[in-house]
Amino acid sequence: MTVKLRAHHLLCMLTYVGKGYSPAFTDNYDKVIARLVAGEDILIQEGPDDICQPLLTTSEPHCLRDSVIERDATAAQHVGELLGRSLQAGDVINLDSAMIEQFRNAFLQGTTRSACTGCEWFDLCSTISKAGYAETKLRRA
């Protein structure tokens, strides 16, 4: 099995501490993170992914907004640079501890943060990264 993620969620997962848009959203996100912690690979996809699912039942879900699609494009570019290859829909990422650390270091240094411009969670994620990601749920051995 693979976890389907849009590109900007590769950044969001780094700082996820159990906060979100609704209880259904965080419950679902917890399950997605648990699958990643258990070792499932990531399949990059365009548009709404496994994390977005609870939001798709709302009227005008933000997952479909142009600003979110732009975040995906920027995140794909930056994460691709970290990986040393282009990153596009259909690619599979085998997430490991070293990669999580690499992604978190780049996030903390601001290398990938332009993908987060305009996100309502920007300040929370900044605080979490500056605190060393201590309370985050994504942990791999």
Question: How would you classify the helix and strand content by structural class?
Answer: mainly alpha
Global shape: globular
Question: Which spans of ≥5 residues are poorly predicted at pLDDT below 50?
Answer: none
The order of strands across the largest sheet is 1-2-3
Task: Give a topology summary.
Layout: E1 2-5, H1 9-15, H2 23-37, E2 41-44, H3 66-83, E3 92-93, H4 97-109, H5 122-130
Parallel strand pairs: 1-2
Antiparallel strand pairs: 2-3
What does this structure look like?
This protein has 5 helices and 3 strands. With 141 residues, it is mainly alpha-helical. The chain has a 3-stranded mixed β-sheet, with helices on one face.
Core attributes:
141 residues; mainly alpha; 3 strands
TL;DR of this structure?
The protein has helices at 9-15, 23-37, 66-83, 97-109, 122-130, and strands at 2-5, 41-44, 92-93. With 141 residues, it is mainly alpha-helical. It has a three-stranded mixed β-sheet with strand order 1-2-3, covered by helices on one side.
